[in-house]
Amino acid sequence: MGAALNVGTRRGPRRRPRRASPRLDAAELREFGRRLRAWYRRNARDLPWRRTRDPYHILVSELMLQQTQVSRVLEFWRRFLERFPTLHDLAAARESQVLEAWAGLGYYARARNLHKLSRAVVREGPRAWGDAPPEAADAGHRVRADAATAALLPAEPESLRRLPGIGAYTAGAVATFAFERRAALVDTNVARVLTRVFAPRLHPKRPRDQKHIWAIAEATLPRTGTATWTHNQALMELGALVCTARVKRCGGCPVRTVCRSREGR
């Protein structure tokens, strides 16, 4: 009979203690959201992808904005959409034509994935990802979503993530900005704002902290999809203009009253 293993004689590798999600005060969350959205309505930059609800146009902008400055994307976004104004136009193009239109932006995997996505949704439609075709959002002061495009792209973040090249952030952005879904999104700017305000011990780029940062983003969401549109735009805008990586402009920050990292605290 073989010798029995003595599992108690050796210690395994030490495990890091699980990091608990920070406690969030409901009153602070409400004040954060109210001040943030009020600031955005007064200070938002006039960017063309904020004036449309066309899911395709928003998707192109979100992919281009990854790793690329807004000033460069403005030029390329307009030019790309002039050449491929709809998902059908993009799906019908050759990959070489898409890469040619993308030339100068770099990170060409974004263009290839966008092209693959266009062909997939034109062929399959949103039902392949479990969504019924959504009604085009009534944009009011913005442009009404193109019905043909809205019928092709899924509206829910979980379905959008099944498309080629679409991660959690891009799925949340398209769901919110095109379809007014109540969805969280976390990019570099958002992660920096949320950790500074609510959880200074978390690091925006540390993998084990990501689920906690996403949980904070979920907790800050307002109740409606329309308000979420403004809220998510405002989070990104605050990180781009005020709470930047290099400089914390605490004196001009609208949420400094609830910020755990503000100067002088």
Task: Describe the 3D structure.
The protein is mainly α. It has one domain (26-40, 50-258): Endonuclease III, domain 1 (Orthogonal Bundle), CATH 1.10.340. Helix content is 50%, strand content 0%. The chain is built from 12 helices and no strands. Helix 1 (26-43) crosses helix 12, helix 9 (168-179) crosses helix 12 and helix 10 crosses helix 11 (210-220). The longest helix has 18 residues, at 26-43. Residues 1-12 and 135-145 have low confidence and may be disordered.
Features:
disordered N terminus, 12 helices, 0% strand, 265 residues, Endonuclease III, domain 1, 50% helix, mainly alpha
Distance between the termini: 67 Å
Quick one: overall form?
globular
- CATH class membership: Mainly Alpha
Poorly predicted sequence stretches spanning 5 or more consecutive residues: 1-12, 135-145
CATH architecture label name: Orthogonal Bundle
CATH topology: Endonuclease III, domain 1
Radius of gyration: 21 Å
SS elements, strand count: 0
**What is the CATH superfamily label?**
Hypothetical protein, domain 2
Q: Structural class of the secondary elements?
A: mainly alpha
Tally of individual domains: 1
Q: Which strand-content bin applies to the residues? A: under 5%
The ordered string of helix (H) and strand (E) elements is HHHHHHHHHHHH
Continuous helix count: 12
Largest sheet, in brief, is: none
Mean pLDDT: 86
Percent helix, as a range, is 40-55%
